[in-house]
Structure formats: C-alpha cells, structure tokens
Amino acid sequence: MNETDNLIGRRGLMLVLSSPSGAGKTSIARRLLEEDAALEMSVSATTRKRRPGEVEGQDYHFVDRDSFHIMINNREFLEYARVFDHYYGTPEGAVMTALDSGRDVLFDIDWQGTQQIADAKREDLVSVFILPPSTRDLEHRLTKRAQDSAEVVAARMAKASDEISHYREYDYIIVNQDIDVSVTSVKAILTAERLKRDRQVGLTNFVKRLRAGQ
C-alpha cells in the first residue's frame, strides 16, 4: 500500500489481464506479482487432478465435479468455464475479502471470464488486454517457446483472431513489444485506478477532519 492508502483507506480492485496465447500476459503477471506487494493472484477452483508439484490453495483449489456444480448452483463463482473435460472457476468469497481489506487481486483469464466478472462486479474491475506487436511476432513467440506441436500452434493462431476481436470490451489496451515497458504501463494503470475517488473508502471522513482543522 502507498501512503495515501494508509491515510485514507482504500477498497481493493480486480485487475484482469487477457491476451491471445503467446502475447505475454503470463510474463507480465509474474513481474507484477514480484514487484507489487499489494497485489495477489486469484486462486481458481478446478475439477482436474492435481499435478506433481502443485499445492492445494496456492496453485488451485482442487474439488470434485459434484462439489463444483454445487458451488455453481450456490452462485459462489465470480466466473467459471468448462475447458475440454474440466471446470475452472474463481470463488467469489476470497476475492471479496481481499478487496474489502484493501488488497488487489490479479486475474489471468480470457474474455469470457472477464465478461462474467464485469456482469457481477463491474465497479471493482479494471481490465487490460495485451496485444502482440504483429501476427508474425505472435506466431514466432508460440513457436520459440517449444511447448506445443505445430498443430497446436496453428490452432492457437486460429483462435487468436477471435480473442483479439474482443479488445473493445477492455478498459485499457497494451501492445507488448517490450516487456519492461508493458509492465511499467500496467503499473501506471494500477496507480491511477487505486487513486480513483470512489475507491478511497475513507475519503469523506478524511476530508471532514481536514475541514475541522485536524
């Protein structure tokens, strides 16, 4: 938290980063978490099995399918989706607790998840879409990281066009040509959004004290 937060008190925000695969949102998110102590990553619930090295409550909340559907019926998710044979969703309770405490929560989700959060909690949402500098650059990044087959890269490139078409739904757009510049830009967005009047929950009382000569 900055000095203003300590003097006035601030409600946290939900920072969403979205991009087509390979545009760099995960790298930007990792840098933000390393460099900003007031920012924490949202932890999703999932029905897929835990992989070696994954930690319950840190990487994911691992639940069975019946429990996940109960959570859906109880409207416990800010957003959720089925990805192939598994479900993923963001439990609302932990996020709202963080925001009430003045902490900010980072989301690495797609446009569909962002739409769901916007429908539920638009006033707490700050959304940023990350674009690659060119289609050729995006394909080069996907190929260079050598995590996927040529067929998977082609599928990701085909999906990228649809994902990019949703850029108008986001508050901010960043072209990720240089990772350092992009991280600096997101930090600037965070600074401005944290200073918005409506998020300064103690502002009215603070101003009253100032006017009273305190």
**Looking at the structure, what is the overall shape?**
globular
Number of helices: 9
Low-confidence parts lasting 5 or more residues at pLDDT below 50?
A: none
User: What's the CATH topology name of the domain at 3-42 and 104-206?
Assistant: Rossmann fold
Give the name of the CATH architecture of the domain at 3-42 and 104-206.
3-Layer(aba) Sandwich
Mean pLDDT figure: 91
Largest sheet strand order: 2-7-1-8-9
* Radius of gyration from CA coordinates: 19 Å
By CATH's scheme, which homologous superfamily of the domain at 3-42 and 104-206 applies?
Answer: P-loop containing nucleotide triphosphate hydrolases
Order of helical and strand elements = HEHEEEHEEHEHEHHEHH
Estimated share of beta-strand residues: 15-25%
Indicate the structural class: alpha/beta
Task: Please outline the major beta sheet.
Answer: 5 strands, parallel
Q: Which CATH class of the domain at 3-42 and 104-206 is shown?
A: Alpha Beta
**Range of helix content:** 40-55%
Describe it:
- The protein is of the alpha/beta class.
- The chain has a domain at 3-42 and 104-206: P-loop containing nucleotide triphosphate hydrolases (Rossmann fold), CATH 3.40.50.
- 45% of the residues lie in helices and 19% in strands.
- The chain has 9 helices and 9 strands.
- It has helices at residues 3-8, 25-35, 65-73, 92-100, 111-121, 135-144, 150-164, 179-194, 203-211; strands spanning 14-18, 39-41, 45-46, 61-62, 77-83, 86-91, 104-108, 125-131, 172-175.
- Strands 2-7-1-8-9 form a 5-stranded parallel beta sheet, sandwiched between helices. Strands 4-3-6-5 form a 4-stranded mixed beta sheet.
- α2 (25-35) crosses α8 (179-194) and α6 packs antiparallel against α7.
- The longest helix has 16 residues, at 179-194.
- The chain is globular.
- 28% of the residues are buried.
- The model has no long low-confidence stretch (mean pLDDT 91).
